[in-house]
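Standup, Tuesday
Yesterday: got the pipeline producing C-alpha cells again.
Today: sanity-check two examples.
Blockers: none.

Example 1:
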Amino acid sequence: MDGIALEILWSNLISTVSEQARALQRIAFSPIVREAGDLATALFDRRGRMVAQAVTGTPGHINSLAAAGRHFVERFPPDSLAPGDVLVTNDPWLSAGHFFDITVMTPVFRGGRCIAFFGSTIHHTDIGGYGVGAGARDVHEEGLWIPLARLYEAGAPNALLHDIIRRNVRTPEHVMGDLAAQVASGRVGAERLRALCDRHGLADIEALSEQILRRSERATRESIRRLRAGTFHGESVFDVPGGHRVTLRVAVTVDPEAGAMTIDFAGSSPQAPIGVNVVLNYTAAYANFAVRACLDPDLPNNHGSILPVTVTAPEGCILNCRYPAPVAARHVVGMYVPMPVLKALHQVMPERVLAESAGAVWTIQVQGRDAQGRDFTSAMFNYSGGMGARRDKPGLHATCYPTGIAAVPVEVVEASMPIVFARKELRRGSGGAGRMPGGDGQRVVFSMRTPHPWLLNAVTSRTDAGPEGLEGGAPGAPGRFLVNGAAASEARKMLMRPGDEVVMETPGGGGYGTPPGG
C-alpha cells in the first residue's frame, strides 16, 4: 500500500473513531461523560490490538482500553462471536482500574465474519458499593464487579446480566442509559467501518492494521534510538486523603540499540489500606502517556507505538496492587505517575519536559435527601489545579494535566442536585514563581440546599506540599480543603450538616527556571 493510500485510509479511521466518540458524548446521560469528556473510544483488529483512537479521551482510559483488547479476544475469539453480540467488563485488573469505568466492545461483521472491534470506556454515574471515594477496605465493598461477559447476545439483551446491573446500582436509569450509549456508539463505528471497506474494496482491515501498527512501532523505535543510553531516576512524593503519604520512584532505562525503553517503579510505596491503589494497566497507561508526550507526540497512539515501552512495578506496590486491594479512587495516585517519569526524562530531553503539575483532579461526590424528601446521589464532579510551567511557556491555569478532562459546568451540577456554588475563581498567585511561572489553581466554594444531613466523598491530594519547580523554579502552593473554615482530610465519607460550607483550593503548578532577580 503506497503512502498516499495509507494516509487516506488512516484519516478515515481517525474520523470513524472520533465520530464514535462524538455519538457517545451526545447520547450519554452522565455529565462527567457528556460535559467533561471522561471517556475513550478506539478501533481494534481481530487480534485485539488497538489500531486507532479518537481525538478525544483521557490517557488513563485510552491506554487501559488498549490493554483490555487482548483480554476480550482471549475470552471471546472472533470466530466464536455472532452478529449482534456486544461484550462488556469492568474488571479493574483487566481494564481501566476501578468498577466505575465500564468497557464495552462491539464486534464488526462483514460477510458473516468478525473483522474488527469498536471499544469504549466511560466513567459511570454509579456502580453501587461505596461510591467515588477512598474509604472502602477491599475491592468488594466498592460496587458491582462485571466479569468478561456478553451484554447482548445476537442482538438480544442478556436479560440476567441487565437485571443484575439494575439491582446493584443506585441510579439504574443512568447506568443503563450510559451503557446503551456505549452500545449505540459502537454500532455507529461499525457502520462507518463497513462503509469505508465498501468504498476502498477491502474485505477486512487485517493488511491495513498490520501496516499501521508496523509503521507506528518502527517510528517509535527510531525516536528512542536518537536518545542517550542509560538509566535515569525520578521521584515524586505527595499526600492523599487521610494524611497518607505516597512515594513514587521510577528508573527509566533507554536502550537505543534495541529502540526500546523500560520504566520500572521498584521502590514505590506499598499498596495502601484505602482505595487509592492502582492496577498495572492504569500505571502503564499514564507512564506511556508521559513518554509519548515527550518522545514524539505526533505519532499515532496505538498497539505498535506502545510496544517498544515496557512498564513494570513490583506486585503488591501501590502501582501494581494485589487483589483484593480497594481501587475506587485509583486516579488520585495514578495521575501522578507521569511526574517521576518526566523527572527522569528531563535528564535525557530537558527541552520537552514541564515542571510538576498539581496532579490528580480533586473529585467530589455527595449523597443525601433534598427538601422534598427525594434521595440524590451525585455523579462525580471534579476540579483541577495548575499545570507545571514549560521551558518557554508558563503553565496553564486550572487545567487537568495529565488527564485532560474538562470540569462539569457549575450550572449543570446545580441543575442535577440541590447544590449551590458560592464561588468558582482562579487562585491567583498559587502557581510557582520562575522564569516561566506555574499555572494557578482554583478556589471553589459550595454548600447543599437540604434540611437533612448529607454525605461527602472528597478525594484530594497535595495539601501538605505543592508541586515541585524545575531548574530553579519555585514550587506551586499546596492545596487546601476546608469544611466550615477548618482543614479536613478524610479517606472515608464525611457526615455533613445542613448549612455546612465546603472550600476547595487546588494546588498551583511548579515554576520553571530561576525567577528574574532570584
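Example 2:
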Amino acid sequence: MAVPVSVDAATAGPVRAVSARHFVRLKLRVMGNNFRGQGWRVALFIGGALFGLWFAASGFFLFAAPGMTDNGKYAVLVAAAGGGLLVLGWLLLPLVFFGVDETLDPARFALLPLPRRTLVTGLFAAALVSVPVLAVLIASSGLVLTSWALGGWSAGLVAVVGVLGGLLLCVAASRAVTSAFATMLRSRRVRDLAAVLLAVTAALLGPLQIFGLAALRETDWTRLTGAATVLGWTPLGAPWTAGIDVAQGRAWAAPVKLLITAAAIGALLIWWSRSLESAMVGAASSGKAPAQRGVTGGAVTQLFPRVAGSFRRDRFGALVAREARYWWRDARRRANLITIAVVGLFVPVMINLGGASFAVDGGEGFTMGAGDSSPVLVTVSMIFVGVLASVTLANQFGFDGSAYAANVVAGVPGRVELRARMTAFSLYVLPLLAFVGVVLAVVLGRPGWIGLTAGSLAATYGVGLAVNSFVSVLAAYSLPETSNPFAMNSGAGLTKGLLTFVAMIVTAVGAVPMVVAAALLGDAWLWLALPLGAAYGLGAALLGAYLAGDVLDRRMPELLATVTPRR
C-alpha cells in the first residue's frame, strides 16, 4: 500500500494531504500481509501478546498495590521507580533491536516527498500501535487506581493525564534515540557490541537476582522514598507521580510535573525531527582508511587469526583458522562464549559456597556460608560447567547456514571437519574452563584442588564434544538470518530442544566415572584427576570425531539442506 501524497494542481482528481492515520493504516496493512498464510508468525504474535498481557497484569498490580492496601507511604516510590524503569527500558532496548519493526524505519520513506513534520507525526502515531505500548498502558493504569483510591476522582484524572504523558514520553524517547543512532546502528561492529552487551546482561540475570533479593531484605525504604521524591521531579518520574502528588495534598506540583513531561516530549520530538534525515539516508562517512600494518608471510598467513597462528598452513589448519575467526567475529557465537564464562563461573561458586542459603546477616552485610564442599560436590559442579560449554556445539553447522556449501563442494572429510571445529572452539573455551577451575579452587581456599577441578572439566568437556558432534550432524536446524543473537526460528521446536537435553544428559552420564573416582580414591585422586581426566576427555573427543565423521560423510547434502535458511 503506497502512502498517498499531495499532487500538483494540474493533476486530475482531488488533492489529499498525508496525515498520521495513513501511517497507522500502512502499519496495520503491512502487519496483516505479514500474517497472511504464515501460521508460525501468527503463533509468535499470539505468544508475544500473551507475554505482554502477563507483563501488563504484573505491572498493574505492582503500581496499584499502594491503593489496594490503602497505604500511600510508598506510593511515590512505586510510581517514580517503576515509571523510571519503563522510560529507561524504552530508551535503551531499541538500540539492540533496531530494525525489528521495519514499518518504523525512516529509511523506507527517504524517496517520498513528505514534509519532516508529517514524517515525525506519522511515524510517532504508528509507533503507538503495538503490543508493547498497550502492555505499558495497562500496567501503568495501576497508578490511576492508586491515585483514585488515595485522593479521589481529581487525583485519578490527573493520573490519567500523567500516564498518557508518560507513555508518549516512552515512545518519543525510543524513536528519537533510535533515529539519532540509526547510521551508527547499521554498522556491523556496533550491532555486534550491542549483542555482546545483551549477552552479558542475560548471563548476569541469575547472579543479580540472588544479590537483589538478598539486598531487599535489609533495604532502608525510607531513604529510598526520599530519592524517589527527587526522581519524581525529573522527566523519568514526573508523569507517573503527578496523580500521587494530588492525592497527598500537593496539587500545585501536578501541573509543574505535567509541564516537565510535555517539555521533555517536545524536546525529544525536535531531536527526532533534526536527526531524521541522517536516519533516512543511513550512510555515514567511513572516515580515514585504517593504516596498513606490516604484514609478513603472504596472503595465506593473513587469513590466520592470532589465536590460530601456530597451526600449519594445510587443510586442517585452514579450517581451524576459519572457525576461530568466526567464533570471535560472529555475534551469535560470541554471545555463547560470554554465557559460558559468566554462568560457568557463577554456578559452581554458588553450589560449593552454599548458594541456596545465601542471605543477609542482620546488618552485617552479605554473608555466604562455606557449605559442606567436598571433592565429590566440586566434581559434580564441574560436570555442569563442562556440559554447558560443550552443548554450544550441538548446532554448530547451523551457524554456517548456506555457507556450509563451500565445505560440501570442497569435499572436506567429516573427521577432519569435526576435529577442526572442536579445535577452534577449544582455543577459546579451554582457557575459560581453566580460569573457572582455578578461581573455584582459590575461592574455596583449596589450591590443592586445582588438579581436581581442571581434570573434571577436561573429562566432561571432551565427552561433551563427542556427544554433540553426533547431535550437530543428526539434529541440526537452521538459524534465522538476523543480527539478534538470541533469535530462533519457530521450526526449531520441541524435538530439537529434547535432543539437546538428551545430549546434556548423555554427556553427564559419560562423566560419571570422574565422580565415582572422586568418591572412592580419596586424596590420591587429587593428583590423578588432571592427567587421567585430560586423557579421558581427549580420547572421547577424538573417538567422537572419528565415529561422527563417518556419519557426516554420508549426510553432507542432507545437512546442507537442513541448515540453509528458508526465505
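Quick observation on example 2: Strands lie at 359-360, 366-367. Residues 95 and 344 are 28 Å apart (CA to CA).
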